[in-house]
Amino acid sequence: MDQSKEQRILNSVSYNAVKGDPESVINCIDKYCSQYEWAMNVGDEKGTILDKVVEEADPSVALELGTYCGYSAIRIARLLKPNTRLLTIEFNPEFASIAKEIIEIAGLSEKVTILEGHSEDIIPQLKKKYEVETLDFVFLDHWKERYAPDTILLEECGLLRKGSILLADNIIYPGAPEFIKYIRSNKRFECTSYPSHLEYMKVEDAMEKAVKDPGAAAMLF
Ligand SMILES: Cc1ccc(Cc2cc(O)c(O)c(C(=O)NC/C=C/[C@H]3O[C@@H](n4cnc5c(N)ncnc54)[C@H](O)[C@@H]3O)c2)cc1
Ligand SMILES: [Mg+2]
Fold first, then answer.
1. Do 57 and 211 contact (CB within 8 A), yes or no?
2. ipTM of this predicted structure
3. Is residue 204 flagged as an active site residue?
4. Active-site residue among 64, 90, 199, 208?
5. Is 170 a catalytic residue?
6. Which pTM value belongs to this model?
7. CA separation (Å) from 176 to 89, 156, 162, 219?
8. Which residue minimizes the CA distance to atom 36 of ligand 1?
């Protein structure tokens, strides 16, 4: 049976990237996906926006929804301080195992925990099973119709605090209209849109940042 695209991405990383060097893994995936096979990694243009928001959040505990091949997990984890961690949820077992190997090649296995399963099943386990108090940063990049229900679920599970930062990919393409409607009409979130382009393409796309109760957090300091 011939290999999947994701397996071919792993092959390229395994052959071309410098072990233990996250930047070389990021560059290798971007090169492969822009030259040979398009894949739904956040990519370098939107990845730069992701980097900036992660640096702003400076998270102790970060969550990603939709690991895929681990590209954005590596972008996030490479910026995390010592003794901080990224939890990333992925329900496709093949993608989870490929991501695990790619994250290992980047030398970031200590900082990243891949939680295999559906976000709607795992989010309610984060506090007790994964010892999460609250999440400082959440990157949403899974099925777009799950963005809104999972944001509501994060709230219901008491996982968001004053100042928690959410960042959502693909607000224009494929689009996440229910999420945008929910988050922009929710007084407790301050939203910012970052226009960009679909990974490896000239198609318009955007990312949306939503900060929970920003004023309150600001008043604390
Ligand atoms: C045909 C076509 C192709 C690409 C595009 C453009 C385009 C561009 C992009 O940046 C995109 O992010 C996307 C996109 O669809 N992303 C969906 C990403 C899913 C990954 O997350 C996993 N997953 C999905 N739901 C869950 C869930 N509840 N719990 C746990 N894991 C989940 C899946 O297992 C995948 O690993 C699409 C538009 C149209
Ligand atoms: Mg995406």
1. no
2. 0.98
3. no
4. 199
5. yes
6. 0.97
7. 19, 21, 24, 32
8. 68
